[in-house]
Amino acid sequence: MLNYIILGMIFDCTASGYDIKKYIEKGIGIFYKASYGSIYPTLKKLTEDGLVTVTKEEQGARQKKLYTITAEGQQIFLKWLSEPISPEEGNGNNSHLARVYFYDKLPYETVKQQLLDYELNNTTYLRKLLLLKDNFQSPDIQGKYYYKISTLYYGIAILQETIRWCQFIRGREPFENFLNKGGLNNE
Amino acid sequence: MLNYIILGMIFDCTASGYDIKKYIEKGIGIFYKASYGSIYPTLKKLTEDGLVTVTKEEQGARQKKLYTITAEGQQIFLKWLSEPISPEEGNGNNSHLARVYFYDKLPYETVKQQLLDYELNNTTYLRKLLLLKDNFQSPDIQGKYYYKISTLYYGIAILQETIRWCQFIRGREPFENFLNKGGLNNE
DNA sequence: ACAAACATGTAATAAGTTACATGATTGG
DNA sequence: CCAATCATGTAACTTATTACATGTTTGT
Questions:
Q1: How many CB atoms are closer than 10 A to CB A140?
Q2: Among positive and negative, which fits the CA dihedral B80, B81, B87, B92?
Q3: What is the distance of C-alpha A20 from the center of its chain?
Q4: Cβ-nearest to B142 among A93, A150, A174
Q5: Which listed residue, A8, A25, A76, A149, has the most CB atoms within 10 A of its CB?
Q6: pLDDT at residue number A59
Q7: What one-character-per-residue DSSP string does B74-86 give?
Q8: For residue range A53-82, what is the model confidence (pLDDT) as tens digits?
Q9: β-pair type (A62-69, A52-59)
Q10: Distances from the Cα of A127 to the Cα of A83, A122, A133, A159, angstroms
Q11: DSSP for B151-185?
């Protein structure tokens, strides 16, 4: 995963390992973290595989290694990006978001198709959970297993929001209409 | 994590490694998966640490190892369960749910406190994201970085649902009032 | 002067997955 | 009889984290 994220982050601008860490924090820090202990070794491997090249830049005594994506690197990245979002992706770990983050680099038709597939997978899964929940309707079961059941309802709520989000961004609707009113909102 | 989940799963009933796998699938399979390649070694370590004991049961030529939690195991489990849900927990990976799943074993006051803390952390985070989103309001930025921005809105939506869920289950309200109407719902 | 940020990296460890390897029992 | 399920485990590998180790430059 990190290898693709690095390729995406330097897709149209050269950067150092240190820079990449900051790009990740600023860009997808909400749902993905990477430490130097993983970034530097990954950069090394990407170099060995010929997906990036490195140029040393010296500013006085301070050294800096700038990484540039190669044509093969771009190809590999775009291939990964075009692949469908697998059902496990986004299921718990939000790694589907890392993919979507880079969707501005993909043709609109591809994006639409992947988002539709992802939405359908989520809908299928939601249907299953909605049926499951019906097994836990009696008051005595809800009393004894309240919190166990609550995790099921959490899953349902998150799936519903995910589906709503998919439908919304598939249509590239303006975000001002996205947020639910109610709760805390700063307008 | 898996060590605690196993302790929780056999907290009040003895089970085999095979059983545990099924309990996990049935119970928290929505947001957590475990393979035999992690379950059996973990069971071995728990035995070495004295948190579980094992008894061999032979049914004909078929052997089965039944694991029972020890007093120390129960103590360690309840200690873990009582700890606050850390902010990273639930942030991307939904491991907070594994904790909540076992909350029926905890005094109501403890549960209420942990859920309140967790809700507050989420609220703080939500406030930060709501401010962040204001930096991306101009139409040309939304055109160029639509999908990047979409991940921010996803985060906001999920946080809002998480907070709503926290408030709801903190009050132990009946689930019939939880689900949002609209979208696909089977009633 | 000193803290924060810039900058790169390694070693030990953690926590798991996947594929392999083996065999018994049950239900149709 | 044969597929599915029951039942346990190991070996190689993946992917990351944490702590360590080192040194520079900028801003106050």
A1: 7
A2: positive
A3: 16
A4: A174
A5: A8
A6: 78
A7: HHHHHHHHHSPPP
A8: 999 988 777 889 999 999 999 999 999 999
A9: antiparallel
A10: 25, 9, 10, 10
A11: HHHHHHHHHHHHHHHHHHHHTT--GGGTSPSSSS-
Q: Which one, of A94, A153, A44, lies nearest residue B97 by Cα?
A: A153
> Residues 6 or more apart from A127 whose CB is under 8 A from it?
B184, B186
A83-102 pLDDT per residue, tens: 998 877 765 678 889 999 99
Q: Kindly indicate the confidence band of residue A11, based on its pLDDT and cuts at 50, 70 and 90.
A: very high
Give counts: helices (H), strands (E), chain A: 8, 2
Residue nearest to nucleotide D10 (CA to C1'): B37
φ/ψ bin of A183: left (φ > 0), alpha (ψ from -120 to 50), beta (otherwise): left
pLDDT classification of B59: cutoffs 50, 70, 90? confident
- In the numeric block, the tokens 């390992």 are attached to A17
| pLDDT tens-digit readout, B109-149 | 999 999 999 999 999 999 999 999 999 999 999 999 999 99
- Nucleic strand C near CB of residue B42 (< 7 Å): yes
| B186 contact residues in A (CB cutoff 8 A) | 127, 130-131, 134
Contact at CB, A165 and B154, closer than 8 angstroms: yes
Distance B15 CA to D10 C1' (A): 22
Q: Which two structure tokens, joined as six digits, stand for B111?
A: 């549960």
Give the number of A-B residue pairs with CB atoms closer than 8 Å: 145
Q: Which of A128, A113, A99 is nearest to B184 (CA)?
A: A128
The pLDDT-based confidence of A186 (bands split at 50, 70, 90) is very low
Nearest to B163 by CA among A25, A161, A23, A100: A161
Using one digit for the tens of pLDDT, what is the confidence trace for B65-97? 999 999 999 999 999 999 998 877 765 678 889
Q: Which nucleotides of C are covered by protein (CB under 7 A)?
A: 6-12, 15-20, 23-25
Computed over its alpha carbons, how large is the radius of gyration of chain A?
21
Question: Searching chain B, which residue's CA lies closest to the CA of residue A9?
Answer: B148
Q: Please report, as a single letter, which amino acid is at residue B154.
A: Y
